[in-house]
Amino acid sequence: MLVLRTAQMVALEDAMRQRFEENLSLHLAATYGRPCDSEMRALVRRGVAKAEQYGIISDCGIEAMLEWIIGEGEHFDTDPERPMVLEILNDPALPEPAKLRALADCHPWRAPELPELVENPT
Asked: What is the pLDDT of residues 30-75, one digit of tens each?
């Protein structure tokens, strides 16, 4: 029987987290045409911590948060012009998937897009 001690579990979790953060740094750098340097890695670490603060812990959820951070700014969640973002993220009744869906569906920090004008053939 294999027995893992607490220290071993902590070391394993740390290694997995570092690998995840490194892979995410590489992915985001390639996606957004930025260098994968210490600045990108630090942004990813801060983004992971921010996501976890709101109960977002899945790989996909953390990646979504970091994409919003890169696209909208590191403090998009606390911008007073975007109060709905913080309301969604802090809502204890919403599980992670619902929070992400609500943010993705309503884009509360953007003006609504205008419908395309289509010429009516008469």
From this structure: 999 999 999 999 999 999 999 999 999 999 999 999 999 998 899 9
Output the CA–CA distances (angstroms, integers) from residue 84 to 47, 91, 98, 101, in the order listed.
Answer: 19, 10, 14, 13
C-alpha span between 47 and 59 (Å, rounded):
12
Q: Tokens 């220290």 map to which residue? A: 7
Q: How far is CA 114 from the centre of its chain?
A: 26
Do 66 and 28 form a contact (C-beta atoms < 8 A)? yes
Query: Three-class SS string for the chain?
Result: CCCCCHHHHHHHHHHHHHHHHHHHHHHHHHHHCCCCCHHHHHHHHHHHHHHHHCCCCCHHHHHHHHHHHHHHCCCCCCCCCCHHHHHHHHCCCCCHHHHHHHHHHHCCCCCCCCCCCCCCCC
Written as six digits, the tokens of 119 are 């010429």
In Å, what is the CA distance from 121 to each residue of 9, 86, 115? 67, 45, 18
User: What whole-number distance in Å separates Cα of residue 6 and Cα of residue 19?
Assistant: 20
